[in-house]
Hints:
Helix content: 40-55%
Radius of gyration: 22 Å
Mean pLDDT: 95
CATH class of the largest domain: Alpha Beta
Number of helices: 15
Structural class: alpha/beta
Shape: globular
CATH superfamily of the largest domain: Aldolase class I
Low-confidence stretches: none
CATH topology of the largest domain: TIM Barrel
Order of helices and strands: EHEHEHEHHEHEHEHEHEHHHHHH
Amino acid sequence: MPKVFIIDVTNRDGVQTSRIGISKLEKTIINLLLNEMGIYQSEIGFPFSKSEVNYINANIELSKMGVLEPIVLSGWCRAIVKDVEDSLRYTNIEHLNISISTSDIMIQGKFQGKKTRDDILKMMTEAAEFAKKNGIKTLGVNAEDASRSDMSFLIKFAKEAKNHGADRIRYCDTLGYDDPFTIYERVRTLAEEVKIPIELHCHNDLGMAVANSVAGAKGAIDAGVDAYINTCINGIGERAGNADLVSVILAVKKASSLKDKLELDERVDLSKAWKICKYTSYAFGIPIPINQVGVGANAFAHESGIHVDGTLKNRRNYELYDYEELGRPEQEIVETGRVITVGEYSGMKGFKTVCERLKINLNNEKRTQEIFELVRYANLHTQKPLTEYELRFIVQYPEQARKIMTVIP
């Protein structure tokens, strides 16, 4: 039976969101937490962009070292030869998604009448062929605005992509225009016609990103091919957001008509959900909504007398799944007294105190000084007090940390 795999795009699509952003160190920690959670692939950024080069190459180094594995680290670029060429020149990326618009409204609107459908096919196939001939191991071809694209052209586009080396087609519901019924039919038709695995990339403009993602995945599975759902942690993404990572996993595992018909990648470990959602909330500076699926403060809160009575008798009366499944602790310890943080202006004594509290042994004074300086730079880099994840990463992988935090104009 074909499977459902998760490709998280927080570090590419999520960071494109207006008014927010995270540092390269924080992006790296997210990759590490995604790997720990058993997520199949992380789209880590833009390898053709010089500002991302050190971060991407350092993360690929971590992959080669066995630190970031088995997660697949992939990049994104436009479906033009120059972007692919620059990506391969600047970085050691081996997995890539190339993207181009396929709807008539976007072809006309973005290219102002200067490109035709045939031009789109030519640009995409040239970029795809160049990528595969020059070392890209896994190539995804993205049909931007697939949901508003003519179906016959979309099928032709996907067949041409497959013929020129594409391993997957990304069906992009770029404006959240689809509904669960249309996306199921369109994706199933596409998969049956082209016989290629389908990625589902759904936005939340109409509040249906998760529903559309799982419906599209079922369309692919029913057509006999693997489905790859694109997610963002906490649903962060452009405009109204992308399909939320935890919601998608819960829907596949728990929804009445899906849990026995969709087989999720067995490596996914839902018990890491609480940790990754909390860290990502901190990194982006966006509080988790009180009613967020699975990880919101009210996800397991009960007040109504009938609900409280029913839950206390049997939690399954009013809880579809258990908070323990998401790695949520029954209680969290919150420090309300003296707190010592480490940052750009920290002193050595405070730094050593934090390390002792976390049982981090730096062995000797020279190494302690080296890590201390990197920690101060890390605070300058993130503009936030360091978390335990970040501090431990710097201690374990100082050379990669130094590269990740180096951005040269």
